[in-house]
Amino acid sequence: MSGFGRRDVCRLGATGALTVAGLGTAGTGAVVGSAESNTNGRVVFVYDDSWREDWTDTFPVHQDEGVPACCAAVVDHVDTSWGLLPEHLREMEDAGWEIMAHTASHVAVGNLYLTAPAAAGDERLSLDGSFLAEHEGEEIVISDGDRTVENAVAGGGRNDDDGIYLDLAEPIGESFDAETAYVRFTEDRIRDEVVGSKDALEDMGVEVDGFVSPFGRSDGLVEDLVRDHYAAFANRGGNGLNALEGLDPHALGRSSIDGHAVTEAEIESFFDNVAANDTLGIAVGHSQFDETSPERIRFAIRAAKERDLEIVTLRAALADLEDREEDGDGTAADPSESDETDGAGGESNESDESNDDSLPGFGIASTLAGLGTAGYLLSNRRRDDERS
């Protein structure tokens, strides 16, 4: 398998400043689909969860097609019998791939919101996601931003009366309103998952600038930690068509290429929109899914190439955009914009098992082209994807 060159050609600073040193094709993960491309659109492929299939199935297809991708790695999945090995991460990076952090243990680090009011004395909460239920005994907080109480998980599940529910180790001591109040792990646990995962992966010998949040849950403390410690938040919310003008790298969205989530025609339509609107398209896949076969991945790569779309890593795309802005060809984003906007275009919370990454955004591409990515995002709940 042929590589793309050594890493370390360009690096994004931990706080989001883009530092570019000697940008070129080697090490940047940039592959041009056509010498006479008539679109400024670009595509980033991201593969979540760091299962061994990223190495055995997906990496060879990208090498054969001569294009890079990004691996969103879960620390606890690495160096297992079924996950990637540290040497896989290093070799992928040396071949032009970008390694991202996907938390330490693949738990929901974003807020889970109450779907019904909670009264003082309640021992069960109704939530818009089930991801804490399996963590019995672990400490959590319930908060509305002004008041915060501590508790612990005692179980949970789903039934016809309560929908998704979480059982508490002891009665809640305060009343909380639905929708505005939320539940999450403690600050220490979320910091370990978000910041600690970056440190652990870099200890394996790779560079980590981007973050991917499990299950698409990205509201709350995780936002602040990612903005402070990473150069990019690859699934903060949106439908994957990230307008270049005013782009906030901490407010990016993705669109699935997984076989269970979209058809081949929908993948083609997504790339049509990327090309027509000169956007940064981010596509996500999960190599461990049977439906996301090497053939499906090759189809998606070739669909992008056929539209003269440049396939790059996220690091390379953002570094090039920074170069253009410095040359006066673009407008730098105001990082505060994402704090004033919400939720997620195609990532609305329809059900606990739905995809965290939206289907292609049909009919809204022209609107997105005129808005910054942050201007499009809405902060309502992400769709939960228990397969993400």
Outline the structure in words:
The protein has 388 residues and is α/β, with parallel strands linked by helices. Among the domains are: 42-107 and 189-323, TIM Barrel (Alpha-Beta Barrel); 115-180, no CATH class. Helix content is 25%, strand content 18%. The chain is built from nine helices and 17 strands. The chain has helices at 53-65, 86-94, 187-203, 221-229, 264-277, 294-306, 314-326, 365-370, 373-376; strands at residues 10-12, 18-20, 42-48, 70-73, 98-101, 112-113, 124-126, 139-143, 148-159, 163-168, 182-185, 208-211, 232-233, 241-242, 255-256, 280-285, 310-311. The strands form three sheets. Strands 3, 4, 5, 12, 13, 14, 15, 16 and 17 form a nine-stranded mixed β-sheet that branches. A six-stranded antiparallel β-sheet has the order 6-11-8-9-10-7. Helix 1 (53-65) links the parallel strand 3 and strand 4 (70-73). Helix 1 runs parallel beside helix 6 (294-306), helix 3 (187-203) packs parallel to helix 4 (221-229) and helix 5 (264-277) runs parallel beside helix 6 (294-306). It is globular and about 60 Å long. Mean pLDDT is 80; it is low at 1-36 and 330-387. It is found in: Secreted. Residues 322-366 are annotated as: Disordered.
